[in-house]
Design a protein that fits this description.
The complex is a heterodimer of chains A (431) and B (431).
Chain A: H1 6-10, E1 19-22, E2 28-33, E3 39-46, H2 60-67, H3 77-86, E4 90-95, E5 100-107, H4 111-123, H5 129-146, H6 150-162, H7 176-181, H8 184-194, E6 201-206, H9 210-221, E7 245-250, E8 257-265, H10 273-284, H11 286-299, E9 303-312, E10 317-325, H12 330-346, H13 351-368, H14 372-384, H15 391-400, H16 404-414, E11 421-426
Parallel strand pairs in A: 2-6, 7-11
Antiparallel strand pairs in A: 1-2, 3-5, 3-6, 4-5, 8-10, 8-11, 9-10
Chain B: E1 6-9, E2 15-20, E3 26-33, H1 47-54, H2 64-73, E4 77-82, E5 87-94, H3 99-108, H4 116-134, H5 137-149, H6 163-168, H7 171-181, E6 187-193, H8 197-209, E7 231-237, E8 243-249, H9 257-269, H10 288-294, E9 299-306, E10 314-321, H11 327-343, H12 348-365, H13 369-378, H14 385-389, H15 391-396, H16 400-410, E11 416-423, E12 429-430
Parallel strand pairs in B: 2-6, 7-11
Antiparallel strand pairs in B: 1-2, 3-5, 3-6, 4-5, 8-10, 8-11, 9-10
Helix pairs in contact in B: 1-7, 9-16, 10-11, 11-16
Classes of the chains: A alpha+beta (431), B alpha+beta (431).
Amino acid sequence: MSPLKPENLKSLPGPEDIRRVELTNGIVLLTRPNFDSPSVVMNGYLASGSLFDPDDKLSLAHFTAMGLMRGTQRRSFHEIYEAMESVGASLGFGASVHNTSFGGRALAEDLPLLLQLLSESLRQPIFPADQLEKLRAQLMTNLAIRSQDTEELASLAFDGIVFEGHPYSRPEEGYPETVQRVQRDDLVAFHQAHFGPRTMVIVIVGAISPEQAIEQVQSALGDWTNPQQVELPQLPLIKPLKTVVRKHINVPGKSQTDLIMGMLGPYRKSPDYLPASLGNNILGQFGMMGRIGDVVREQAGLAYHASTSLNAWIEAGSWEVSAGVNPANLQRAIDLILSELDRFVREPVSQEELQDSQANFVGRLPLSMESNAGVANALLNLERFQLGLDYYRRYPAMVESVTPEMVLETARRYIDTQRLAIISAGSDSPG
Amino acid sequence: MTNIVTKTRLDNGITLHLKEIHTAPIISHWIWYRVGSRDEVPGKTGISHWVEHMQFKGTPRFPAGVMDKAISRDGGFWNAFTYLDWTAFFETLPADSIDLAYQLEADRMVNSSYDPSEVDSERTVIISEREGSENEPMFRLGEAVQLAAFKVHPYHHEIIGEKEDLHRIQRDDLYHHYRSYYVPNNAVVAVAGDFEMQTMLEKLSQLYGKIPPGPTTQHPAQPEPPLDGEKRLEVKGPGETTFLQLAYRAPSAADPDFFGMTVVDSLLTGPTGLNMFGGGGISNKTSRLYRALVERELAISVNGGMQATIDPFLYDITITVDPRQKVETNLAILDGEIRRLQDEPVSPAEIARAIKQARALFAYGSENITNQAFWLGYAEMFANYDWFVNYVEELEKINPVDVQRIAQTYLSSDNRVVGTYIPTGDQGENE
């Protein structure tokens, strides 16, 4: 193993170089300077995600997020983008189940403008009716394109089955009929009820001192209040699958079939997360996509991509194997993957495999933070999952404390080839 | 941020470009070969990309799994790209592990095994990669448009190659291609990151310098005659969404008109950056075609872009047509906008704006060491490093008269292929 040298450990964000402040209205700001390039990255979120969407108007959070920059009390759609694009800056919004998130970047000299546009979009959107209809046409076309995307279709079906009854089972973008039902009044009401400073986190990384960053955020957003902001609801429990669920979605005219197999995984704060994450690396990530990549791609030559992913969120997660294969090879790929999953819960990973992945986790940390965007994302995760400002400094020791037995015990709590979803999307007969 | 680049050429013809950057304990090492789909002959299309894949299959000293493991264990990442004019391999690693990268690259420049059984299993992997792309309507349309845009020049085929050729190419073809082009006199090594110049230069010179030069490489591409008038084509396939792609013959990167064309692209469809790693883009909602087509609800989106290439390639405009609208209406409005660019001089302010956007994109790209190392080698493949250094300065020389002339020269309808993807409306069914 090649442990991170002390001087390299210090290059990672930590308590001495991250400034975290809470404004009086509840907004949390994390900032870290980097003067090596004249740019800044700004990311963040508010807890106004699609979990608040009514079933019949699923897409409301997404629609609202996309509508924020379509016009504000101060600027028209065109004026917003004219101001931003003229200086080469960018800003955009999107919705996930828990959050409305935003991301932008600019030359440091233009950060005040970026913050001003963020503030106007969050606090004073007017959702002009004509703009919303243009937006609706775009959302509908995106759904039409999705309806032909084998990977997306498999993924939608997978989430629907594995997270049944929970907001995680629903796509933020909704369905054509739910997008059609959303009216301007819905957006206005959603914005009023769910957008506020109390749940807002903002991260700024780049060529700006912490003092200036704090001052600029305070000036743009410090006086925002929303006494009507609704509390977060209690969400239903998610139950693991009890059997194998097999589903195929026929999409005519496609050369390749996309396959997703998997089950629930740990939530991000779970003590299972790190052993599962290391196990996942061995199973379907390390090197050329781990054991799964080795068997399905390198040995059998069945797929260009074959790998696993562990997706851990606030309330739960998923553990997924995905591959793209020729329809004629679908069953063979499924069988190979099942047999690897069986092996993974039958016997512990070798000491060597684990050490490789541990070294990989520790060694890649500085690489994942080579850009402002990488650091901003790391800071956002600290706050979202309440990991503590010293998390990245503690991380190497935490990774190295995991044993093959811990990986096996953790894998057995989640992976069971008698209880999983197997979803494929592609042509019944090759197109 | 320093901008000092050390450039040298060793006796065997290999070029070294090095840049010290001490912002993070990381080094990114790239090796570029002047070989791509431009160097392929009918019957062997896709061979350059396949050779790139085979370069991951090991040498006697670094068998496949060993290279992979060694890089991943140190937390590094590596990959490779095959393009029209070039093939590039890179490794980004913690600074104290970088030896591995050049040991590996120097070794596999000469000693790759090309085991026949690996050739066969990689054949199906690459066919699977192609089939994954064929699932995308835009790949199918783009392939047809490119094919129509060139008669004699190898730019006419997709980099991945024709499926028939992927079935036909044999081990010895691949090995011959490898030995012909993977020679020091056809390579550029680019390294950026946390090292000391003299030490790095000595190591690289010692290692790469002892590889004997190969024969002069052959680049058989013949100049393409002008298009003899507009060509139109249709591709039919599953889905509900109509896409329109226009491809105009564009200037080569070394042609002074390339910079004027870059400004034209920025005005028409928004700025396109040169960053391959990180940096993100700038939205294009104030571009002329977005305003004319999307704002007026004729299209759902419009994008455009141009590639820096050795020989003249294409300037593409891609439109997702609003389902309530006709292709012909979109084309008529687009032609109106192009005529406006040809008939009326643009304001100096519009050009200044395009330049500020280019500067911002540069700043974003310079945050990231991998991207900086990419820049060090990239421009050498179609021009030279000064092309990149002087890029913004060259843009600054462009005046309204140039823009008008360039629009007249390159955006004539006789100089384009117009392709339409016609959806057949097939709908998938769940089983």
